[in-house]
Amino acid sequence: MPIKNNRLTKEQYETNFADIHPPFENKTAAQVEASRCLFCYDAPCTKSCPTHIDVPKFIKQIVTDNVKGSAHTIFSSNIMGAGCSKVCPVEKLCEGSCVFNLLHEPPIPIAKLQRYSTEKAMKENWQLFERKNSPSGAGGKKVAIVGAGPAGLSCAHVLSREGIDVTIFEKESKGGGLMTYGIAAYKVTPQFCEDEVNYITAIGGIEIKYNQELGKDITLAQLKKEFDAVYLGMGVGVARQLDIPGEKLEGVVDAISFIYDIRSKGYPSVPVGDKVAVIGMGMTAIDAATQAKRLGAKEVTMVYRRTEAEKPCTQAELDIAMLDGCEIVWLAAPKKLKGSQGKVKQLVCSKMTLGEPDASGRRSPVDTGETFTLDVDMVIKAAGQVPFEKLVKKYKLDNKNGKIVINENCATNIKGVFAGGDAVNGGKEVVDAVQAGKDGARAILNYLF
Ligand SMILES: Cc1cc2nc3c(=O)[nH]c(=O)nc-3n(C[C@H](O)[C@H](O)[C@H](O)COP(=O)(O)OP(=O)(O)OC[C@H]3O[C@@H](n4cnc5c(N)ncnc54)[C@H](O)[C@@H]3O)c2cc1C
Ligand code: SF4
């Protein structure tokens, strides 16, 4: 049962990693769907979108073939509207609140329509925003942003529109954050992510300095000295450990590194086992499991310590994993990993039952004392990510287990230093990070002027 790479043909990789949500075939198809919209007063879709895109307005603009206006409506609220149209878990956001759900009819395909307008805008390179001259009396204000992920890019765009010069310090060699290095390859391609970063920065006044890591190549004191304000949008980092025996065996990997390799090295380069177990049931676990299957793993089993009712992923995501043929074992927690000659061979799990609700309000898993064993040659750990606690503590930033604490003005305890996105919330969605970046930029503008 070897772990090996290059299991499939070029064509198989292409098919397996093809766009999971294809676009409309043509203008008529988009307009037919757009025409179904009831243009609700007090639109629930707009309220359910964390960036509050005026959904009925942009859909109406598609109906009247005003695609440029539609893209402007979307980008005014969400400069990553193109990326969000491909990655938002819409069933729990805008589309989940569409009134058609109450009528037992399919909701308006909001994300697909959003993609229709924004993709055209990017393809045609429509520059829909003008950079203001520096605000009067404030010429030359400069802001440093740490991290070129959704939070950092969204913050940078709002600031740049207001005439502020922004420098982003990014530790990787590409921008986009987890859009580029984390989200499943069948949702967004590396080329799309690069195009999106270029489209956002085309407004001007935003310089991204790559391979520049806060805490290694630059310090917070330096940024504070050289810039008028600092925004920390560095996300969350390392994968949570399982803390069970055998975790160091060969073949035990963390989901973030596994997905990072798929995104940065290319499909044939990434080794995968015949029998893979994935620990966890969040979005990362689903992405790891489905991509392991699509790389050619024969069996993929997902192990989760609670029941389906408490799963953190959405039903749509679970459906993808099940359609890909992944097995699901509910009420099972990893207990130990057994190996031979340094390689993982078995995953021993405790059978769980549900006890009293915990702090999250969900019933907590309780060990029954019984166990079962799965034969494996690869185990992917996807039990969540932990914040950059060491870095945050090094700079004496107020934090809760590494998550930066901010006030209602997005300000940290250090004067002139603001923060947002996953680094603050511990890990949500791209669309939440985009809104956090907008909030951070507004707070910085209030602070500067
Ligand atoms: C596997 C996985 C799948 C996901 N799938 C989805 C999905 O399908 N849909 C969805 O909406 N969300 C998804 N998410 C969540 C989403 O990607 C994040 O919520 C979002 O990217 C957060 O944006 P951010 O800007 O706060 O952080 P990030 O995207 O993490 O960006 C932070 C940036 O800061 C850089 N950085 C970190 N430390 C430093 C430092 N010390 N110095 C300089 N730069 C630094 C990083 O390299 C990165 O570029 C997924 C997350 C993961 C892990
Ligand atoms: S950004 Fe996401 S949640 Fe908001 S309207 Fe678009 S697809 Fe829906």
Task: Tell me what the structure shows.
The chain has 449 residues and is an alpha/beta fold. The chain folds into three domains: 19-123, Fumarate Reductase Iron-sulfur Protein, Chain B, domain 2 (Orthogonal Bundle), CATH 1.10.1060; 142-237 and 386-448, FAD/NAD(P)-binding domain; 252-381, FAD/NAD(P)-binding domain. Helices cover 35% and strands 18% of the residues. It has 17 helices and 15 strands. The chain has helices at residues 10-16, 27-35, 44-48, 55-63, 67-77, 81-87, 110-123, 150-161, 178-181, 190-201, 220-226, 255-265, 283-294, 315-323, 389-394, 422-425, 430-448, and strands spanning 142-146, 165-169, 206-209, 229-232, 252-254, 275-279, 299-303, 327-329, 332-340, 343-357, 363-375, 378-381, 399-400, 403-404, 417-419. The strands form four sheets. It has a five-stranded parallel beta sheet, sandwiched between helices. A five-stranded parallel beta sheet has the order 5-12-6-7-8. Strands 9-10-11 form a three-stranded antiparallel beta sheet, with no helix packed on it. Helix 4 (55-63) crosses helix 7 and helix 12 (255-265) crosses helix 13 (283-294). It is globular. Iron/sulfur cluster (SF4) binds next to helix 6 and helix 7.
What is the CATH architecture term of the largest domain? Answer: 3-Layer(bba) Sandwich
The CATH class designation of the largest domain is Alpha Beta
What is the CATH topology assignment of the largest domain? Answer: FAD/NAD(P)-binding domain
Domain module count: 3
- Content of β-strand: 15-25%
Global Rg: 23 Å
Number of helical elements: 17
End-to-end separation: 63 Å
Q: Ligands in the structure?
A: flavin-adenine dinucleotide, iron/sulfur cluster
CATH homologous superfamily descriptor of the largest domain: FAD/NAD(P)-binding domain
Count of distinct strands: 15
- What structural category characterises the helix and strand content? alpha/beta
Biggest beta sheet summary? 5 strands, parallel
The global form is globular
Q: What is the typical, i.e. mean, pLDDT?
A: 95
In spatial order, strands of the major sheet run 3-2-1-4-15
